[in-house]
Amino acid sequence: MTTRSLYLIGCAAPPVLHVRSAVAAAQAEGWEVCLGLTPTAHSWLGDRVADLEELTGHPVRTRWRRPGESGVPWPPADVVAVAPATLNSISALALGLTPSYVVGVAAEAIGAGVPVVVMPCVKTTLAAHPAMDRSVETLRSAGVRVLYGEGGFVPNPPGQGRPEEYPWRLVLDAGEHALANARPAKP
Q: How many helices (H) and strands (E) are present in the chain, helices listed first?
């Protein structure tokens, strides 16, 4: 089997605390997983980051390398999945802003034609903000598979979320589908 590389980008929403199970599930399906986290998500995971690095065999990335700084490169991405994605990261990605390393990675993937999957994790009060629908529409028009609404993530009222039940399976299935239907890269 050919190795397929999945960049899993996690934002600071409660399901990121369960990202280990998503990494293990992806690996069981033959994905080589590289994990990137927003700075806040990284701080939430704290001492679990070392375990995630051991599990993936790659550094967990949260910031850009400084000019001249060496580091172990990740393999090229076949699919980039942003999950859980916050309103902040979704809006930034739709606008082409790169306030964090991981949003920058996803933005570059869109520009490079690498399949990108985004699954939000927002409460109903944030989902009601007008930026949410505009950002989702912008990303979808750019070819990003956004798993939001029917058949994807459905927002919960504040305090009603169940982060341990976040539908990681949908992200992995969408990644498989995106890779199978990816257009060949332009020469």
A: 8, 5
pTM of the entire predicted model: 0.94
pLDDT at 70: 84
Cα distances from 2 to residues 30, 127, 153, 183, in angstroms, run 8, 39, 30, 18
pLDDT of 156 reads 87
What does DSSP assign to residue 80?
E
pLDDT digits (tens, 9 = 90+) for 99-156: 999 999 999 999 999 999 999 999 999 999 999 999 999 999 999 999 999 999 999 8
Domain boundaries, the chain: 4-62+76-180
Which tokens hold the place of 185? Answer: 């890269």
> CATH 1.10.357.10: does it fit domain 4-62+76-180?
no
Nearest partner of 156 among 126, 119, 117, judged by Cα: 126
Facing residues of 85 across strands? 120
